[in-house]
Amino acid sequence: MIKSAERTLQQPLEFDQENMGKFSFEDKMRIQTLCEQGLGYKRILKAYPEKQWKADSVKTICRRFQRTGSAVNRQVGSGRPKSARSEDNIDRVSQLICSQEDQPGTSKSTREIAQEVGISQFSVRQIAKKDLKLRCFKRTVAQVLSAATKQKRLERCRALLKRITVPRSKRVFFTDEKAFYLDPPVSTQNNRVWASSRKTDVAAERLLIQRSKFSQHVMVSAGVCYGGKGKLHFVPDGSKINAEYYSANLLPFLLEDCQNCLQHDFIFQQDGAPAHTARHTQEWLASNSPDFVTKDEWPPNSPDLNPLDYCVWGMMLAAYQKYRPKPTTKAKLKVVLQTIWDSLSQDSINKAILAFRKRLRACVKADGGHFEHVL
């Protein structure tokens, strides 16, 4: 039997440097097998020096096998008793972590709960996950919607679903304007600095993210459709996008892009910005476009329904965040934005266009309210 065990010990075993000194399930089962063959903990330690196991730990596993017949399962009630995850603390966390019935917004953060209950934030998260079986979701930023706005969104989404069928949705040219900043806002939630020294010993340039209080920006206008995208049009500095400027300096070029992408059978779309809904703009489109979404057809306060808002601009911003080196002037920013625009995936744009009717239906299902958090 000893010779058989020695042959078992000679079998190669994968060694993970990161898990040095830890016991995996396979490790414990191997120790159990060797114990069954009559080997003691010293022989086991000697056979696996690369594991760097502690003698006391291997001895404990061997004793567990001798006492219970298993090296894997601990005896019920063994180990250090729970302190933070007590029944009283679980009840307190349960009362505080979720909003009370018919009282939305009454929930407390893990930080607030930890301070009130007197336990760590880690313990609060452990109670929520393991004891209360709760799941954590990220908040979604959304536009403010009044009751009147919801009603208009509901009615106009229903009308658009009837007017813009699945085939017609591929003939819509969606347009919008967007400001891109030289120093866009940076989330520091997951942007951390690791160091072996104290925080006061870390260089300032590693800890600080400098951003101008009034960052310079570039305003762009563009349009996209299924199967293509227009040009990226830059608004000159100091220009005010009112109805006159929009009709004279942007609409002709956007309409030209639309014709290049979709020929003459298309629907021109724009949101409810004042320059778009002005009578002068509506009359210009009625005279120069074969078909367009009028100011009384597009749902108000609906960036969640425009593919540029819910997809394209986000793709550009994500690409700009990764771009290195960052531009230092507005002229260089324009070059970078043009490069990013030209490299945008048409497949991603097509998917965003095809999601338009799905979002219309989701808005109707939500009675004109928010729906992005459930998509």
Record keyword descriptors for this entry.
3 domains, 5 strands, 47% helix, alpha+beta, 17 helices, Nucleotidyltransferase, domain 5
The count of β-strands is: 5
Oligomerization: single chain
Mean pLDDT value: 87
Describe the sheet with the most strands.
5 strands, mixed
Question: Would you tell me which CATH topology of the largest domain applies?
Answer: Nucleotidyltransferase, domain 5
From the 3D coordinates, which CATH architecture of the largest domain would you assign? 2-Layer Sandwich
Q: Which structural class do you get from the secondary structure elements?
A: alpha+beta
Give the uncertain stretches in residue-range form. Answer: 1-20
Distance between the termini: 62 Å
Helix content: 40-55%
- Count of distinct structural domains: 3
Shape: elongated
Tally of contiguous helical segments: 17
Strand content: 5-15%
CATH superfamily of the largest domain, by name, is Ribonuclease H-like superfamily/Ribonuclease H
What is the CATH class of the largest domain?
Alpha Beta
Short description:
The chain has 375 residues and is an alpha+beta fold. It has helices spanning 2-9, 25-36, 41-47, 55-68, 87-97, 110-117, 121-131, 147-163, 166-169, 204-207, 243-262, 274-277, 279-288, 307-322, 330-342, 346-354, 356-365; strands at 172-181, 217-225, 228-229, 233-235, 267-269.
